[in-house]
């Protein structure tokens, strides 16, 4: 008889590729997992894996059902999550994925307040590139993604709730040749290195505008650490598209400068991005309430 336990064991072996790895993930002994797999194969009357010294290779039939097995397990986990929400459980987990370009702006100014108010909630914050962030949302490993909406509009199965537009500026060092020039255009920046805090999807309008004007399809430096980016700006003629708030003090003192460049794509359309049809937990709602309050109060 096929059981939920069998499906979880099958999924773990597929994901890990070995009985040893799957047994560790499931906190089972290897003999117990082997017996479970043998029972499943006998119940189905079909061989699921080709065994070898290098690991477990899924058979054609196993590959055929692997996706449906995974989706079924995710749906069952979602049913349990919905039941928890219905009981209004506020103790639990909150997993936020965040785009690197807005990580410091949002997380640094909201997470301490959330933790102080709700110490019973276990919080995980993760970042990554466009592909990694989408994968976490689709695999339900993250409750929400906070990021610029534009790069994710072409991804199916996601819904977007706008929070606030965050204006971008071009930041340079005090000795940059274009400092003080009026109405700078992107093509004037072609001979200088482009640096950035994060990568964006190729369809991003700002990246498209920069590429057309400068033939720079990607930044010369990608680094999520703003102090490091500041050091690069001070030592080179590089230029950095970023929310000005990250370098507000440096601009006020003249340590760094903002170029007079304006373009419709110079903004981050900060949004909550999540799976269509997935309910928000109370912890997510409370965290977003804190985010909204902060974004309404801060001067960008």
Overview of this protein structure:
It is a single chain. This protein is α/β, with parallel strands linked by helices. It has 3 domains: 4-86, Arc Repressor Mutant, subunit A (Orthogonal Bundle); 92-164 and 269-297, D-Maltodextrin-Binding Protein, domain 2, CATH 3.40.190.10; 167-267, Periplasmic binding protein-like II (D-Maltodextrin-Binding Protein, domain 2, 3-Layer(aba) Sandwich), CATH 3.40.190.10. 43% of the residues lie in helices and 20% in strands. The chain contains 10 helices and 11 strands. It has helices at residues 4-16, 19-26, 30-44, 60-86, 103-117, 130-138, 205-214, 226-235, 248-253, 282-297, and strands spanning 49-52, 55-58, 92-98, 121-127, 144-148, 158-172, 195-196, 221-222, 240-243, 257-258, 267-275. Strands 3, 4, 5, 6, 9, 10 and 11 form a 7-stranded mixed beta sheet that branches. It has a two-stranded antiparallel sheet with strand order 1-2. A two-stranded parallel sheet has the order 7-8. Helix 7 links the parallel strand 7 and strand 8. Helix 1 crosses helix 4 (60-86) and helix 2 (19-26) crosses helix 3 (30-44). The chain starts with a helix and ends with a helix.
Keywords:
300 residues, D-Maltodextrin-Binding Protein, domain 2, two-stranded antiparallel sheet, alpha/beta, 10 helices, Arc Repressor Mutant, subunit A
What shape does the CA trace take?
elongated
Q: Using DSSP, what is the number of strands? A: 11
Q: State the CATH architecture of the largest domain.
A: 3-Layer(aba) Sandwich
Count of separate DSSP helical elements: 10
Mean pLDDT: 89
Spans where pLDDT lies below 50 across 5 or more residues: none
- How far apart the termini lie comes to 60 Å
CATH fold type of the largest domain: D-Maltodextrin-Binding Protein, domain 2
Question: What is the oligomeric state here?
Answer: single chain
Family: Belongs to the LysR transcriptional regulatory family.
GO molecular function, one term: DNA-binding transcription factor activity
Protein name: DNA-binding transcriptional regulator, LysR family
Domain HTH lysR-type: 2-59
């Amino acid at each position: 008889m096929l059981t939920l336990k069998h499906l979880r064991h099958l999924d773990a072996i597929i994901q890990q590729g070995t009985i040893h790895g799957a047994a560790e993930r499931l906190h089972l002994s290897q003999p117990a997992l082997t017996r479970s797999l043998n029972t499943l194969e006998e119940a189905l009357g079909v061989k699921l894996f080709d065994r070898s010294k290098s690991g477990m290779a899924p058979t054609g039939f196993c590959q055929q059902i692997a996706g449906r097995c995974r989706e079924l397990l995710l749906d069952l986990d979602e049913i349990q999550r919905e039941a928890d929400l219905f009981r209004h459980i506020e103790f639990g987990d909150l997993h936020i994925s965040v785009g690197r370009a807005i990580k410091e702006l949002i997380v640094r100014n909201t997470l301490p307040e959330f933790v102080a108010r709700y110490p019973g909630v276990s919080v995980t914050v993760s970042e990554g590139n466009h592909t990694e962030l989408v994968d976490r949302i689709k695999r339900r490993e993250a409750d929400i993604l906070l990021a610029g909406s534009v790069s994710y509009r072409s991804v199916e199965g996601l819904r977007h709730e706008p929070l606030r537009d965050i204006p971008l500026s071009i930041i340079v060092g005090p000795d940059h040749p274009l400092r003080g020039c009026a109405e700078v255009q992107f093509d004037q920046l072609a001979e200088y290195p482009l640096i950035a805090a994060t990568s964006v999807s190729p369809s991003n309008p700002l990246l498209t505008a920069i590429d057309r004007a400068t033939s720079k399809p990607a930044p010369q430096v990608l680094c999520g650490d703003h102090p490091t980016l500041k050091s690069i700006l001070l030592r080179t003629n590089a230029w950095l598209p970023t929310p000005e708030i990250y370098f507000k003090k440096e601009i006020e003192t003249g340590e760094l400068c903002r170029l007079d460049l304006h373009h419709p794509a110079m903004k981050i359309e900060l949004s909550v991005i999540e799976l269509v049809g997935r309910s928000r937990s109370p912890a997510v709602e409370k965290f977003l309430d804190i985010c909204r309050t902060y974004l309404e109060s801060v001067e960008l």
